[in-house]
């Protein structure tokens, strides 16, 4: 298939802030965008030329949408597989169905990563309370029980400590199919945000160090401050994952940094088949942003330089943090982003602010 030129239309499934920032990057390159999302309050609708507000199971609407765009991407990993297949049958879907299906189920995802010989926490599939007891015997405590699907920002997971009742933990997740993971005693949480093209060109941004608050990303710092070897290992792991998924677009691989025998190593926690919150710093902090890289990759264009412009810190504005917008506007060098969400509910990502300092 020939690349999509400027003037072509990028279809985006999902209307959140990630879709919004993809649409803004596409506009910069002279592309049109069409966002598909059932939610009337979608931040991406505000900045896209067209939008379709229909369900992800509305086959007729999906077909019409696919007919009106040149290439389709998505901004969240819980796009139903059937939806992805309907779209992929009509237009290039990037990343593809395999990447989506593998990463939207934590058990499939960890099995895939482990098969590549890449370290993960020990894990077992759990389909019932008896399975959980068996898995706890094998893995030990502390452990983390997570739903296989639809978990994000720490939702759908429960920590099982030595004193936790396994039945209570199981009931908390309401009988959903789960995965039990051994607890990783990590020093740091890091992520690799990288892009891969149709032809296999790969470019990673510098490793990000992430701190969370109440399970939600709070701050990303780059450089991550880890050893050069650990950073190279992290990027090599992301490249192997992208290659094995025949991935097209931007992906993020979330990892734990652990110390083994006095050396830092990485353990993969999760793959996000999309642009990622820990890559927002690239808008001002890198030569090409993660959103531009994603648009380039899915349109069949060459990637841009992923070079970092300085020491960078990105802070999320969660809930009422965004009320500080006036103060942030007045701060020299603070790059404010607001997502246009009407209601500042607790835990809701309302915007972010990036500060770029001179290169270390
Ligand atoms: P997740 O939804 O898998 O990204 O998990 C959310 C957060 O829970 C992570 O960012 C970690 O802080 C913590 N966490 C998840 N899994 C583990 C694990 N196996 N060991 C230690 N901490 C974990």
Distance from N terminus to C terminus (CA atoms, Å) equals: 43 Å
What's the count of strands?
17
CATH names the topology of the largest domain as D-amino Acid Aminotransferase, Chain A, domain 1
Could you give the order of the helices and strands? EHEEHEHHHEHEEHEEEEEHEEHHEHEE
Q: Give the overall average pLDDT.
A: 97
Bound ligands: adenosine monophosphate
Number of helices: 11
CATH architecture of the largest domain: 2-Layer Sandwich
> How big a fraction of the residues is strand?
25-35%
Provide a compact summary of the structure:
The chain has 360 residues and is α+β, with helices and mostly antiparallel strands. Helix content is 28%, strand content 29%. The protein folds into three domains: 9-93, Rossmann fold, CATH 3.40.50.20; 122-182, 2-Layer Sandwich (Dna Ligase, domain 1), CATH 3.30.1490; 188-357, D-amino Acid Aminotransferase, Chain A, domain 1, CATH 3.30.470.20.
